Amino acid sequence: MDADAEHRTHPWxxxxxxxxxxxxxxxxxxxxxxxxxxxxxxxxxxVGSLEQxxxxxxxxxxxxxxxxxxxQLSRRLGILRAPAFPYxxxxxxxxxxxxxxxxxxxxxxxxxxxxxxxxxxxxxAEFLVVxxxxxxxxxxxxxxxxxxxARTTVIDLFALDVSRHxxxxxxxxxxxxxxxxxxxxxxxxxxxxxxxQDAPLEHRAVKRYVGxxxxxxxxxTQGVIxxxxxxxxxxxxxxxxxxxxxxxxxxxxxxxxxxxxxPHPPVDV
Length: 269
Description:
CATH superfamily of the domain at 9-164 and 243-251: Creatininase
Low-confidence stretches: 1-7, 256-269
Number of strands: 4
Strand order of the largest sheet: 2-1-3-4
CATH topology of the domain at 9-164 and 243-251: Rossmann fold
């Protein structure tokens, strides 16, 4: 692969990475962190997972997606961001796939509480937690995060409505159309199209999950629920833009004209 091709497979250029570093807690000395928190005491935190995403997507898919959204929001809003937390509570049945590693709900809850307590002592007044997980215990652990005075807002990306951008809207999925589209756009070098296998749920199974049963990849699949063959990089771009526009509207302080900072441009390829 030539240098130009290698560059095209990643959405972040060297100059953009340098710009991102200006808002990354782990890339700044502590006096600069203190100054930025004094100006805006919010902190963006991406919480991912190390979990199987079928035979065609990397185990870090959830982390890569959440971290990308947090980078965009951090740069656009001028808010500090923490390093991605790459472990979560995985879907039931995922532990049979090599490489998958997760935490119990109470362990994730305890870890988040302890980390947030340190940051709150340093002046963080609101934690903006972004995650991309369909595990209910994972979400419960984050929603129950305890702080002394700081506010915690948990954003589940999969709860944001992007049905207009999906070919198979309404179907439960894991490593299906949405995540495959996102990864084909963000990191096509990590996707293995030759390994894509569809595993749509039967109607009876769909009703079970819609009725509140935990989402679990059936034993007969390789960890997939849904139709990853519908994955498309342009669909992934559209989903990301919809998510980011929605979150910019939610998190941006009103300007003097009464509107946020303006429309979000297309995510860089």
